[in-house]
Amino acid sequence: MDEPSETIADALELLAERQAEAPAIHAPGWETLTYGHLGAQVRYVRERLKTWEIQAGDIVGAALPSRPEMAVAIATLPSSCTFAPLDPCPTIAELAGDVARMSERPGETALERILREVEALTDEEAALQLDGNGSAGNAG
């Protein structure tokens, strides 16, 4: 008897290995996504988030409509971070509230770490970081 999977992503990876061609997500008007493709998506998202230094415990918000893309996000993101689905058409006040709630947790999120590092830069260093080509970006 197999050991139970620890996460949804683990279970999806196992299904991707065992039933690669079986349908995982089907929505009218969309191409059916197989467990093999979904497993590949889980691995891709996990590796992509690692390159952005996003890890378990960091909160990632996404504003996607209720479509297959949201189902894939719900299936793939929790393997690497805490996923917070957001309203795709929020007011500024609603979005500010979402961001505030996502920030109310112990530890530092990737976004908080990036903001802290940006705040620590001098104005000249920030201009160089934003310009990206070693010049201050002044037009004249």
Give structural notes.
The protein is mainly alpha-helical. The chain has a single domain, classed as 3-Layer(aba) Sandwich (Rossmann fold). Helix content is 49%, strand content 9%. The protein has helices at residues 8-18, 35-51, 68-76, 92-103, 110-120, 123-131, and strands at 23-25, 33-34, 59-62, 82-85. A hairpin with a 7-residue loop joins strand 1 (23-25) and strand 2 (33-34). The chain is globular, with a radius of gyration of 19 Å. It starts with 7 loop residues before the first helix and ends in a 9-residue tail after the last helix. Mean pLDDT is 74; it is low at 129-140.
Radius of gyration: 19 Å
CATH topology: Rossmann fold
Q: Count all strands and give the number.
A: 4
Structural class: mainly alpha
Mean pLDDT: 74
Quick recap:
The protein is mainly alpha-helical and 140 residues long. It is built from six helices and four strands, in the order αββαβαβααα. The relative contact order is 0.11.
